[in-house]
Amino acid sequence: MIRGWTAVIVFTTLAVVMMVGVNVRMWRRMKAATMAAKAEAEREAVEAERTEDLRSA
After folding, report:
1. Phi, psi at residue 30, to the nearest 5°?
2. CA–CA gap between residue 20 and residue 17 (Å, rounded)
3. What is 1-57 written as a DSSP string?
4. pTM score, two decimals?
5. pLDDT tens across 11-50, in order?
6. How far apart are CA 37 and CA 33, in angstroms?
7. Contacts for 31 with CB less than 8 Å, ≥ 6 apart
């Protein structure tokens, strides 16, 4: 009986570790995508500002 409970604990622990790993990986990808989108928006804002300056000159 104890071996059965040991197996349940081991498999549950492995499942939790895998889920945490997947969540961390997804969080890192989401963070990288957010940073890339912010950088892109900043580049577009600078470009729009330069275009506006050229039009007013």
Report:
1. -65, -40
2. 5
3. -HHHHHHHHHHHHHHHHHHHHHHHHHHHHHHHHHHHHHHHHHHHHHHHHHHHHHHH-
4. 0.63
5. 999 999 999 999 999 999 999 999 999 999 999 998 888 8
6. 6
7. none
- How far from chain centre, in Å, is Cα 45? 24
Tokens at residue 35, please? 């940073």
What is the identity of the amino acid at 52?
A: E
Residues 21 and 14: their CA atoms lie apart, in Å, by 11
